[in-house]
Design goal:
The chain is α/β, with parallel strands linked by helices. The protein is built from 3 helices and 6 strands.
Length: 165
């Protein structure tokens, strides 16, 4: 694997150093799916997706309590439900938040980075998110080390019905 990555890096270094010959507007505007895939593997991004830099806050089910249901009428799910400004990110959007990959989930597994935009909040305006951590203030502990002011957020799909639990 190390040799493969080194080969890819060497190829990319050589190919970017070569002069561009006969690039017309048609060939310059063509997409490069293989190049996007290689760049995505090297940088950890998902090819072809627009990445937003967003600020996040955290919320949990605590002493004051929150609604047990999100704005779609679905049960809120710890480390999966996210509240969004629906003028920026439509509800029912699957989001990938790169910085959350590997965080501990309530069931002991590692987070895969996927969140489900199924809730909204009055204070969530513009490029802001509100991540649901679970039950009680202690549920926010896995998310505390994150830089919540600069999260890398990509829209990667849509879901129907309620988000998976």
């Amino acid at each position: 694997m190390r040799r493969t990555l080194a080969g890819i890096m060497a190829f990319m270094a050589i190919s970017t150093a070569l002069p561009a010959f006969a690039l017309d507007s048609e060939s310059a505007s063509r997409s490069d799916p293989l190049g996007d895939l290689i760049a995505g593997a090297l940088t950890g991004t998902i090819p072809g997706t627009l990445e937003y830099k967003m600020k996040a806050t955290l919320y949990h089910a605590g002493a004051k309590g929150i609604r047990a249901l999100d704005s779609l009428g679905c049960k809120v799910v710890a480390m999966r439900t996210v509240a969004v400004d629906k003028t920026v990110i439509p509800r029912r959007t699957v989001l990938f938040i790169k910085e959350t990959v590997g965080l501990p989930m309530p069931d002991g597994r590692k987070h895969d980075g996927y969140w489900y935009a199924s809730d909204v909040g009055g204070a969530i305006k513009g490029l802001k998110l509100d991540l649901f951590s679970g039950s009680g203030r202690s549920s926010m502990a896995p998310l505390m080390p994150l830089n919540l002011t600069h999260l890398s957020v990509s829209k990667v799909g849509e879901f129907k019905g309620c988000p998976p639990e």
